[in-house]
Amino acid sequence: MALAFDEFGRPFVIIKEQDQKVRLRGLDAQKANIASGMAVSRILRTSLGPKGMDKMLQSPDGDVTITNDGATILEQMDVDNQIAKLLVELSRSQDYEIGDGTTGVVVLAGALLEQSQKLLERGIHPIRVAEGYETASRIAVEHLEKISQKYDFGVDNIEPLVQTCMTTLSSKIVNRCKRSLAEISVKAVLAVADLERKDVNLDLIKVEGKVGGKLEDTELIYGILVDKEMSHPQMPKQIEDAKIAILTCPFEPPKPKTKHKVDIDTVEKFQTLRKQEQQYFDVMVQKCKDVGATLVICQWGFDDEANHLLMHRNLPAVRWVGGVELELIAIATGGRIVPRFQELTPEKLGKAGLVREKAFGTTKDRMLYVEHCANSRAVTIFIRGGNKMIIEETKRSIHDALCVARNLIRNNSIVYGGGSAEISCSVAVEAAADRYPGVEQYAIRAFADALDSVPMALAENSGLQPIETLSAVKSQQIKENNHYCGIDCNDAGTNDMREQNVFETLIGKQQQIFLATQVVKMILKIDDVISPSEY
């Protein structure tokens, strides 16, 4: 390698043997693409299932993240290869659409790529492989529909929802508290759900965390939690039947828009200016008192004089509250966000049964609870934990549980987990392959083999013999015609997932198969990679 300069004095590098490098095309390019995708899949394979391992990721800034969530691992990995980036996008799509199954979808895609490599080496054209995969994915999705079950639940019967969320949480770091966290997630979703329209707005569920306490101290608050305290230490810490003025205008005198300069050369002028400023504050505070407000929540700050005046007028206030929190407080309390003091009226005040300030541990950390609101369709999940990493991972786990509960409300069909659905689909796809006379039947059988990789990974991660365990479970499914036999990852003594209460949402499993097949088809059809410098 040597450094040279062009006619404009710009440096460039001459790499030896550059002329001997050959760009990959055709079958070689496809094999290289498949190898890139399989490399990403192998990273996530060990994180699958309840006994899956965690990954420690270090950012360039030195921040450390410990997680086994597929979407988070791929999001924080520094991936340069374009094909590997497709699998990162695949995991992200599953996360956006379903919220769960982000590891499984990448493992399935990697298995499909591995099988397609064998088919390409046997001389089968990539287009025929892609068509076979498409046919097999349709067969698998239709079979999932047949073996799925409807799960009835209601506001009084939340156990089915809790059990499904527990399945999701069982593969996370927080699995020792999965029962309590699943109940909190389900109650939060039902609090904001519109069951008639089968719609859930997850934006109304705020997830907050604070270091300290135990994971078991995590609680659901039917209201809003704000990481702020009263602006003056002598203001009351608890207000009952609060009428809240929600302001986006600052407690300060108006500023001219143009550049200005004030010359003060006598004491009298200074006192006049100070009096005028005080009058502004007086008018603002009096306006809040006149409309009947007993608490002021302001997006901006206010100086010590305004703070002192608010305390003396017995009007508690909270300052520097973020815009998102303001919107949630307005939704929960039924109030309106007021941009100018002149527009403040009694009808625009929010109402809450109790507003209280709570201190934590021996530190001076305090938070504000806004509870028993007029509109309880905004809730907060408050997470406690020993360190920041535990809290962040718990937030990710609860996000998955919330998404699963939302998906069940939208579509209450479930399939059983533990790899039972994949094994059943594999058997159905294998049986259907004989009906296709063309070369596609090889691809359809390869798809069935790829589906087996998910239960095999579950067995491997649980410390079981993967091939023996899979063969025994598949044989049991076929003999007993029981589609609910899966891998006994938890050593419960039974392979029947109905008895273990391990199940997943139907739409989540269908989406995994659809997305993995689409991405693998796209990778198979790429036979050349051209960089910008080459055209």
Automatic annotation (TrEMBL):
CDD domains: TCP1_epsilon. One of its GO terms (molecular function) is ATP-dependent protein folding chaperone. It is found in: Cytoplasm, Cytoskeleton, Microtubule organizing center, Centrosome. It comes from the Eukaryota. Keywords: Acetylation, ATP-binding, Chaperone, Cytoplasm, Cytoskeleton, Hydrolase, Isopeptide bond, Nucleotide-binding, Phosphoprotein, Ubl conjugation. It catalyses: ATP + H2O = ADP + phosphate + H(+). Component of the chaperonin-containing T-complex (TRiC), a molecular chaperone complex that assists the folding of actin, tubulin and other proteins upon ATP hydrolysis. The TRiC complex mediates the folding of WRAP53/TCAB1, thereby regulating telomere maintenance. As part of the TRiC complex may play a role in the assembly of BBSome, a complex involved in ciliogenesis regulating transports vesicles to the cilia. This is T-complex protein 1 subunit epsilon. It comes from Populus tomentosa.
